[in-house]
Amino acid sequence: MTTPEIDTPETGITPGGTSGAFRDVLSKDHARRGKPPLHFVDMTPAQRIEKAAELGLPKFRVKQLANHYFGHFDVNAAEFTDFPAAKRDEAAAAFFPKLITEVTRQVADEGTTIKTLWKLFDGSLIESVLMRYPTRTTLCISSQVGCGMGCPFCATGKLGLTRNMSTGEIVEQVRVAAKMMRDGEVAGGEGRLSNIVFMGMGEPMGNYNSVLSAVRQISAMPPEGFGISARNITVSTVGVVPGIKKLTAEGIPVRLAVSLHAPSDELRDELVPMNKRFNTTQVLDAAHDYWLASKRRVSIEYALMRGINDQAEHAQLLAKRLNHYGDNWAHVNPIPLNPIEGSKWTASKPEDEKQFLEILHRAGIAATLRDTRGQDIDGACGQLAAKER
After folding, report:
1. Residue 90 catalytic?
2. Is-contact 46 54, C-beta < 8 A?
3. 158-175 tens-digit pLDDT
4. Which of 5, 127, 185, 266 is catalytic?
5. Is 381 in the active site?
6. Pairing between strand 125-132 and 137-140?
7. 251-301 pLDDT, tens per residue?
8. Exactly one of 140, 147, 154, 381 is catalytic; which is it?
9. Residue 41, SS3?
10. How far is CA 106 from CA 228, 250, 252, in A?
11. Angle, alpha carbons 44-48-51 (nearest 5°)
12. Assign residue 34 a region: left if phi > 0, alpha if psi is -120 to 50, beta otherwise?
């Protein structure tokens, strides 16, 4: 099905965050930067053909470029032996401008977790985290420079929002990781990137157009995309209800993840400022509608914080709120809070984590304690701060 383009403000303000009780938290550098260079994945098929014509290339050359990019993860046009030698440099400059440059690479978990710090065209810094498991390999990617949601326990939220990322900047994180897996650069030898989670820096629903364009190209089969199943892509949100509704209308079977973190409005107002704009009832109603439309269980992300939201009464209320809808529509992922520098928030006691899970299970709620990969390199959930080391 096709849906009309939505208007996303050039400034990157989250839809719904420009009025009412919530405002995006902006960094001091917000909206002072130009736009990233136009990349192959930022262009429509017609724009690609038009650009090729400007270079004196027939349109079949566009498909060759797509095959190199999506099929072989390759942007080094100097080595495109099927391409006219005299046009390789021109094509590379026109279609594959350098959007992300590796600054540092940190490794944890015996080489199976790799956090990469990237510098963008304007000097902005973002991070992505590649995690290899026995049966899958997941890449956690960023969609904004910083984040405007202002959640006090999250390192990214403390940065404020600098700007939205382009589709090209988002997709390039995926291409590089896919190439790393194919080339055996991750412990365990050669493999395949299988899962993508939009859980890095930024609120994906605040950059809806670029994120959806990225999702479509990540999930399309080569030469239109990387061929990673949409069912293996997770789009996370702190509860931007208009974005959830738009995603529901797309009809793309991605997994929706909602960062809930509290079962009541009183507590969530403190932990997730966006709750003052869209409260828990609105968020859960929209998430349940996503389940009804997609038949894909929604992931409820819940960072367990010692003495704040991890007690028996919190688990009981959470179970009641989810069971209100009467069907097995949600899977809760309690996450032991990953500490950030200078924060008063800390992880729950193991016995409280255990009790929280048991209460959910007794209430018939599917729940799994999330793995905290990359904690020692500040690569776990909530720790991405894009700092040069």
Report:
1. no
2. no
3. 889 999 999 999 999 999
4. 127
5. yes
6. antiparallel
7. 999 999 999 999 999 999 999 999 999 999 999 999 999 999 999 999 999
8. 381
9. helix
10. 25, 36, 33
11. 135
12. beta
